[in-house]
Write a structure and sequence with these properties.
137 residues, alpha+beta, two-stranded antiparallel sheet, 4 helices
């Protein structure tokens, strides 16, 4: 099962189920009433994960052309996605869903850039751009 979070102007974004080929998606809330975010999925994992697995299967069947979708399908665009959880939480979710984490921790030489933009695309506080380096005394 592939999941993502679309930016929607809220803190947690909108949870989407993504097709196997990463071309299409369905908003979780359009298929499971009240399920808007990844955090809600995690909080109610026992009752929602089977529903999402069914949605994932139906989405892929619709993309393959073997059935019509009982929900609205949208184009998946990774540029619309956001990171909904802190890294440790994300790695935990990956371990639950995939058996092992796939998101690496930062390593020496990696560069991190953080910038918040307003509705007009202007930087609110300026960019923070740093490189991970070894500490030296």
């Amino acid at each position: 099962m592939k999941l993502a979070t679309f930016r929607d102007g809220t803190r947690d974004g909108t949870l989407v189920v993504v097709s196997r080929d990463l071309a299409k998606a369905v908003r979780a809330e359009s298929a499971v009433a009240g399920l808007h975010t990844l955090q809600q999925l995690l909080d109610d994992w026992q009752t929602t994960q089977l529903k999402l697995a069914r949605i994932y299967a139906e989405l892929n069947e619709a993309v393959d052309g073997t059935r019509s979708a009982p929900f609205e399908i949208v184009d998946f665009d990774a540029a619309r996605c956001t990171a909904p959880l802190r890294l440790a939480e994300l790695r935990t979710v990956e371990t639950i869903l995939e058996g092992k984490p796939r998101t690496p921790f930062l390593k020496f030489g990696d560069r991190v850039r953080v910038e918040m933009l307003d509705e007009a695309g202007r930087s609110i506080f300026g960019a923070i751009d740093q490189q991970v380096v070894r500490y030296s005394k």
